[in-house]
Inverse folding.
């Protein structure tokens, strides 16, 4: 007899809908196999021919952590392009390289953890480099473009499956796993949720990653908004991947749950589908899930729900249809097109902040290039390994010729003398073929992390070291051949790194005054440098006291090369691994003092000084005495070439600032103050004078705007206008459309971006630009009615080249829903739905849902609810409270009419609510003022007649 071919199981049938195929596959998996799928590293199921699967592939601006790949500008730089089509093409290139790399290395994942859509609310946030903008509309536009590129345009199969980071209201690294963002309902809806929502609704997103922080007292990994908001925005199954270690944080650092079984069950029920915890070891997550099942905290159906969402992503990626997957044979890697795109993106990201006519540079200019980043191409934590690199100095050599360019890095050159009178000495590297490049020169990149190199020693002459103070007393020290001093696991100090880097940077030090000299403290280990017979190392005892001998100040080198130049280019900024990165917020907007010294020296030597800031975030730097200033994020592999082409005028700059550049630290709110409305944050509400406004950026061309026309329908505002290039070279202009409610009844933005478009125009060319804006984009969240509302009345329509450079304006009158008093008698007052507050923070009402309000200091807080309608008569007020203290009720700023006191807390802790009542006589419409006295939580206020 002929052997029968076994029938194809339904989950392998490409003609069936994905939902039916997932049902079939789920039915074939026993509970233990489904449980194993919940960890980041899901194992293979060999009996079904199912491969292992890993969630998570970092790809913020190129493929990261997996070796060489095309490196594009940082995310904030992509945001500065204001060019959605360019960003879509970048996403497409990145996804193609992921597919090509996966074909060679199955560790490369197709579930992409990118982009980051956290809004750049506060410029001191350490991860500013990872976001696109402070504005939700611009952020969602850029994020949508990037995810569309990552997804691909096939109707069925996705090239990669992007996951948005980090849900929700996450803008601080300081205490990031224990701090709570107090986010009032209007800020939540109008600001933080909006960027996520518009990107998800665009249809190219596979899921989200919750952030480490808490929002309103509740960890994001058990956020009810995953269910109540996120999953209502699309019919697709969205995959929610935890951040690394965050499931354990629910117990270990946040102490939100008593046991890991309880915490894991709560996260799964809230919507977390994949647990990123304990690296590749899935055993602990599996044990916790099994324990939760045994305790009745979870059911198998709950496991099925999470696994279904995972499988939905895997089916969309073509894993189960390799012969039908159009992306399976993608081999586009480091192609000429990708290299050209990296350069184009770097060029489009450059923002011209100021220009007194010195730019573009004349072809025969003699250029002095100075600064700590002039010959650097810096990478950040989420960069890939460079295949190609271009520094500003190299770009200028290439464009203007090395004979016309002089260079001085401007580092301080020092020797460190020990108490014994000897000096620190850097032994020569072992000059083997291993550490030699193709030209035979020493390649520092091949030395990083080595422990077989000799440690530093001491001798009578010592070695002259380059010392750079990156601010806040954090130093790097570099040997003459470019190697950075670094500390290896064995504790010895070696010259063994090409750049500062790593999760814990091992190349940074501090000089601490001590007796008649300094102790040299290693930041990474927290230990001091000591000198012993077997070499220089860090240790807990016998720290060496060093005398710092300055051989040459950086300013002296700067002055030598700048005096005779036609123009001086100072390249300043940050190292992305130092003083502002993941796990570390900045403390100031100021440039490090070392770089300020170099800038002053250059200006004093030559008035034609141009500042090129290369940084992951804004600075407050005086530009009045400068001939010109530019800013670019760290621009990836083509950064130097791009900058040189812009300086030369080969490309007219057209980048625009994606966030406000404040003039002083005093303009900033507290890092943990998330109330952008109440504390007037970002360009939307800021009432001061910025150093440079949101949307700002100059050009070598000039543009005129005209012919503004508007048309209002029942659902849409149409705005049209013309732009004409009145200059003498082809250039890009970024047209920006803003609006402002003229007579709002609640605080509204000073102006708010509705749409933008980047256009290329030849000299004399004119184009018409048309924007169709849904009227829903002009709504605000009305806490009085707990819903969106378009307020009727006049709205300014503003068209221009930045949020403050408005060229055209008109006013339209929109119909909407008039304001109405709060139905206080009918619905009561939810405590968090206040109009104004002082000394209050929002906390969790229960561990699963709802908000309450408490005094931020634990002593006193004030709440105001405007226009509360008590109808014909109110005779009693009631409050739902937990804890202990007093709730005071007054009307219209008058005396306290009712004081309700919880004299002793209950036994259920902060969630043990009780209802108290008191007499209150009122009628008609009043402002209700509530005072919180003591450490209590107020959930709700009710009224009865």
């Amino acid at each position: 007899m002929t052997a029968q071919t076994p029938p194809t199981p339904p989950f392998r049938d490409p003609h069936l809908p994905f939902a039916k195929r997932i049902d079939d596959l789920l039915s074939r998996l026993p509970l233990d196999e489904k449980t194993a799928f919940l960890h980041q590293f899901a194992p293979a199921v060999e009996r079904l021919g199912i491969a292992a699967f890993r969630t998570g592939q970092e790809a913020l601006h190129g493929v990261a952590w997996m070796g060489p790949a095309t490196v594009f500008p940082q995310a904030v730089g992509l945001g500065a392009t204001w060019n959605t089509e360019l960003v879509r093409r970048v996403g497409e290139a990145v996804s193609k390289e992921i597919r090509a790399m996966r074909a060679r290395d199955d560790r490369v994942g197709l579930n992409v953890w990118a982009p980051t859509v956290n809004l750049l609310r506060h410029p001191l946030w350490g991860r500013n480099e990872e976001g696109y903008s402070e504005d939700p509309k611009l952020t969602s536009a850029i994020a949508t473009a990037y995810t569309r590129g990552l997804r691909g345009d096939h109707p069925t199969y996705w090239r990669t499956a992007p996951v948005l980071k980090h849900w929700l209201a996450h803008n601080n690294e300081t205490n990031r796993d224990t701090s709570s963002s107090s986010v009032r309902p209007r800020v939540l809806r109008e600001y933080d949720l909006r960027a996520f929502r518009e990107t998800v609704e665009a249809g190219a997103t596979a899921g989200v990653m919750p952030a480490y922080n808490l929002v309103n007292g509740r960890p994001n990994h058990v956020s009810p908004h995953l269910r109540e908001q996120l999953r209502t925005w699309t019919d697709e199954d969205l995959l929610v991947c935890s951040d690394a270690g965050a499931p354990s944080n629910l117990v270990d650092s946040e102490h939100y749950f008593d046991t890991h079984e309880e915490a894991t069950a709560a996260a799964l029920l809230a919507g977390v589908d994949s647990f990123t915890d304990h690296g590749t070891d899935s055993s602990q997550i599996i044990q916790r899930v099994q324990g939760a099942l045994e305790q009745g905290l979870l059911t198998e159906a709950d496991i099925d729900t999470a696994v279904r969402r995972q499988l939905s992503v895997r089916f969309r990626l073509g894993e189960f249809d390799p012969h039908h997957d159009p992306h399976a044979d993608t081999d586009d890697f480091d192609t000429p097109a990708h290299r050209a795109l990296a350069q184009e993106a770097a060029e489009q990201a450059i923002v011209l902040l100021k220009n007194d006519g010195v730019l573009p540079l004349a072809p025969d200019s003699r250029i002095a290039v100075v600064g700590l980043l002039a010959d650097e191409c810096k990478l950040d934590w989420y960069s890939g390994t460079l295949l190609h690199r271009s520094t500003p100095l190299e770009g200028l050599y290439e464009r203007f010729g090395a004979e016309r360019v002089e260079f001085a890095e401007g580092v301080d050159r020092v020797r460190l003398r020990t108490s014994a009178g000897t000096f620190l000495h850097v032994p020569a590297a072992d000059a083997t073929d291993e550490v030699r490049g193709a030209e035979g020169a020493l390649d520092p990149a091949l030395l990083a992390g080595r422990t077989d190199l000799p440690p530093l020693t001491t001798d009578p002459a010592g070695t002259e070291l380059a010392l750079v103070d990156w601010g806040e007393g954090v130093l790097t020290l570099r040997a003459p051949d470019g190697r950075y001093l670094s500390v290896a696991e064995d504790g010895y100090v070696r010259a063994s790194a090409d750049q500062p880097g790593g999760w814990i940077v091992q190349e940074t030090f501090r000089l601490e005054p001590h007796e008649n000299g300094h102790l040299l403290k290693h930041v990474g280990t927290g230990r001091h440098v000591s000198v012993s017979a077997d070499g220089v190392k860090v240790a807990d005892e016998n720290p060496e006291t060093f005398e710092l001998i300055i051989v040459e100040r950086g300013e002296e080198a700067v002055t030598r090369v700048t005096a005779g130049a036609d123009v001086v280019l100072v390249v300043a900024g940050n190292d992305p691994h130092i003083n502002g990165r993941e796990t570390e917020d900045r403390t100031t907007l100021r440039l490090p003092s070392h770089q300020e010294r170099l800038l002053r020296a250059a200006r004093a030597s030559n008035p034609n000084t141009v500042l090129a800031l290369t940084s992951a975030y804004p600075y407050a730097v005086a530009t009045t005495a400068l001939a010109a200033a530019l800013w670019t994020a760290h621009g990836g592999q083509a950064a130097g070439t791009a900058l040189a082409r812009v300086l030369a005028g080969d490309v007219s700059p057209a980048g625009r600032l994606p966030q406000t550049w404040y003039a002083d630290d005093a303009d900033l709110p507290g890092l943990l103050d998330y109330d952008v409305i109440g504390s007037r944050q970002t360009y939307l509400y800021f009432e001061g004078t910025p150093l440079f406004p949101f949307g700002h950026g100059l050009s070598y061309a000039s543009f005129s705007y005209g012919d503004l026309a508007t048309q209002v329908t029942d659902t849409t505002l149409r705005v049209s206008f013309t732009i004409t290039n009145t200059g003498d070279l082809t250039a890009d202009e970024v047209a920006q459309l803003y609006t402002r409610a003229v007579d709002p009844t609640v605080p509204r933005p000073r102006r708010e971006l509705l749409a933008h478009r980047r256009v290329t125009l030849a000299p004399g060319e004119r184009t018409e630009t048309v924007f169709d804006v849904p009227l829903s984009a002009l709504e605000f969240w009305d806490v009085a009615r707990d819903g969106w509302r378009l307020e009727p009345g006049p709205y300014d329509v503003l068209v221009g080249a930045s949020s403050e450079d408005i060229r055209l304006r008109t006013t339209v009158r929109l119909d909407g829903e008039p304001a109405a008093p709060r139905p206080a008698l009918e619905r009561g007052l939810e405590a968090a739905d206040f109009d104004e507050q002082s000394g209050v923070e929002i906390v969790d009402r229960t561990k699963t849902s709802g908000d309450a309000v408490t005094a931020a200091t634990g002593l006193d807080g004030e709440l105001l609810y405007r226009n509360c309608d008590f109808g014909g008569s109110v005779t009693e007020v009631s409050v739902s409270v937990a804890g202990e203290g007093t709730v005071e009720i007054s009307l219209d700023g008058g005396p306290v009419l009712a004081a309700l006191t919880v004299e002793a807390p209950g036994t259920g802790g902060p969630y043990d609510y009780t209802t108290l009542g008191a007499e209150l006589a009122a009628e008609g419409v009043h402002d209700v003022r509530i005072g919180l006295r003591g450490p209590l939580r107020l959930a709700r206020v009710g009224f009865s007649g």
